[in-house]
Amino acid sequence: MDFNTQARAARAASIELVSLNRATKDAALHAMADSLAAAEPSLLEANAIDVATARGNGTPESIVDRLSLDPGRVSGMVQGLRDLAALPDPVGDVVRGWRLPNGVRVTQVRVPFGVVGIIYEARPNVTADAAGIALKSGNAALLRGSSSAFNTNKAAVAALRAGLEGVGINPDAVNLVEGGREVTTEMMQARGLVDVLIPRGGAGLIQAVVDGSKVPVIETGTGNTHLFVDASADLDMAVDIMVNAKTQRCSVCNALETLLVHRDVAEAFLPKALAALGEHDVTIHGDEAFVRASDDVLPVKLEDFTGEWLSMDLSAKVVDSLDEALEHIRTYSTGHSETIVTSDRAAADRFVAEVDAAAVLVNASSRFVDGGEFGFGAEIGISTQKLHARGPMALPEMTSTKYIIEGDGQVRA
Amino acid sequence: MDFNTQARAARAASIELVSLNRATKDAALHAMADSLAAAEPSLLEANAIDVATARGNGTPESIVDRLSLDPGRVSGMVQGLRDLAALPDPVGDVVRGWRLPNGVRVTQVRVPFGVVGIIYEARPNVTADAAGIALKSGNAALLRGSSSAFNTNKAAVAALRAGLEGVGINPDAVNLVEGGREVTTEMMQARGLVDVLIPRGGAGLIQAVVDGSKVPVIETGTGNTHLFVDASADLDMAVDIMVNAKTQRCSVCNALETLLVHRDVAEAFLPKALAALGEHDVTIHGDEAFVRASDDVLPVKLEDFTGEWLSMDLSAKVVDSLDEALEHIRTYSTGHSETIVTSDRAAADRFVAEVDAAAVLVNASSRFVDGGEFGFGAEIGISTQKLHARGPMALPEMTSTKYIIEGDGQVRA
């Protein structure tokens, strides 16, 4: 099916989704879960083909791992759909409301976007996850996965659609977008047909979508996150937060990438920090002060400050002041999550006010910047843009609003 | 000054604006107002040059009228700035907040976008208005007005900047973007330097910005608005609402453009409607049923349904059902404001649920869809997109949010 036909079918389905109540949508999510669970054998078979092809193409094992399914991972996808059914429905929520002086009632309510396009890399779990989040928020989904996961995604979407059909819902609510790269371009041009595009994946994918899309985009994710240890910091607390933010899971967007230390505490803090990071086999790329402090520190290069490590590496630098820390963060931050450890209220207040990021943390680990940790129950990604949603995005962020204006014949004077 | 230098200066100013409290910003707005009032002679002189040039170029009088200033219009611009000072400051407003199980506090607060670009046509009042709204919401403004208003805008911005300097605020908070068309293109490419672009003007301008911009855009305005007179409508109420929506001010985006009438009431409603519209010299472009009803009705053409009249013209059609009305609106609506007049709860509910627009009205005139009528006090435009803001946009819509996360050393398990 060509993309335009598919997108029109999704739009037609989206009109039906708008009016479904929560009970119906929750039943659909359980039906999708049941159908996916029943399809496990065909899903694993399809996945085995994708994995074999990927290995044959010399794909790195870390990427093959992301692509691979096993019964445990399929169960995770199934459970994810059931968990969504337990969450409140954002559609219809009243955001605010009031009466005009003439008695006209104005109510702003949450409504689905309509058709949501999700462009993602070779993680088959995103297929079920994104389909479920879209359905619960009343949106039809156009899922554009990686070609390397094509067979897996095709089997998964077939199962999800069968689940929808079983409960009498238009299966065009969930669609796998097929075809070559030119189809991604068509998707990005489809303003009016697709209401919002959400890229999920690495920096390259996100940049390509942001640059090429005429459809409004919600930019998710890259996090070049910093931790500033202020002059007044509790140094043991700073060590704990630093180690947790760097090592608890180093491959994710809210993991620590650059450590900034106030010169006044450098002498006391660096030995503690180096010892703790050494225990976790973190490779430190530091400035002169760090290099002087340990033979294990590699000299930091300018480019080490510009991107994400996403590994057990850490850039590190001593700064002369809060101002210098703020300036460094302003220069290199991707606006995701930035942390200060301090005992000084004024320093905390300035850091919170002046750092321009989705999340600013005081005396806590940046690993908390996460939909799950926030208690959202579901997460479609972490927005690093300022429009619409910023930070972890869950079901309410998958909606727009509409003003309902009700009178009994009022006209404007 | 080249655009990039100017945008960087605006960004530097925006960092200072973030931390200004309301009292400081309100004092700045009054200083801008005083300075603009004092500059009235130079403003009128500059405007006379623009008006003479426009007339010399054969510009239509309706556009020359928009461009023209007189002492009354200057007073309006000055008063607009003072009115903004009386409105609450959205920056710092807590949107929501909660504690994580481990005691970490999460607070979502409103923050300025940073740098806002506004691209608009030859209405000099937008210069003061947009500068004031940006300042009150803590944003630096890059104002890109029409070249035909260049001298006027230059004089106005000089006065506004002098007002800011007088109270010790960085004048780069308000900037007039100068240069040819290539500068508009630079502005649309400046992702990272400009946080959001808001085009204000006709459909052509808005489309060009939406299509060409890599900076996130808030699409404002075109309104191809419909009124559906349902089978159960109170016909006198329908006449009042129709006449008000069409004639109270026909050149604006919330004015009525197409009338749809349920066949069951056509025989009773058409004579009333035609008589009332005739009194206001409205030209009706109607389908066969309307043409049969009066010799004054012109036969409607397909293209009459697709765009805005913005004049005392009205497209009109009889439909067989609510379904046909919904389908017509789905096909031609620009998603601005759509109205049903009905006494039937079920019809109203379906219309409200299924019509995909910023505002859906039941038994009230679409002329209420307006920031001023909503009681917002200020309006930067009416968003017809689904991302970020939909409907009338005021000060809160000129902000983003930030999560502030505060702990006493918590780390993720």
Brief overview:
Chain A has 413 residues and is α/β, with parallel strands linked by helices. Chain A has helices at residues 3-18, 22-38, 40-56, 61-67, 71-85, 124-136, 150-166, 181-189, 203-212, 235-247, 263-279, 288-293, 322-332, 345-354, and strands spanning 94-99, 105-112, 115-120, 140-144, 174-176, 196-200, 225-229, 256-262, 283-286, 298-299, 313-319, 337-341, 359-364, 381-383, 391-393, 399-410.
Verbal overview:
Two copies of one chain form a homodimer. The first copy, chain A, is an alpha/beta fold and 413 residues long. Chain A has two domains: 237 residues, Aldehyde Dehydrogenase, Chain A, domain 1; 144 residues, Aldehyde Dehydrogenase, Chain A, domain 2 (3-Layer(aba) Sandwich), CATH 3.40.309.10. In chain A, 43% of the residues lie in helices and 21% in strands. The first copy, chain A, has 14 helices and 16 strands. In chain A, strands 10-9-11-8-7-12-13 form a seven-stranded parallel β-sheet, with helices on both faces. In chain A, β1 and β2 form a beta hairpin. In chain A, α2 packs antiparallel against α5, α6 packs parallel to α7 and α10 crosses α11. The longest helix of chain A has 17 residues. Chains A and B meet through β2, α10, α14, β13 and β16 of A and β2, α10, α14, β13 and β16 of B.
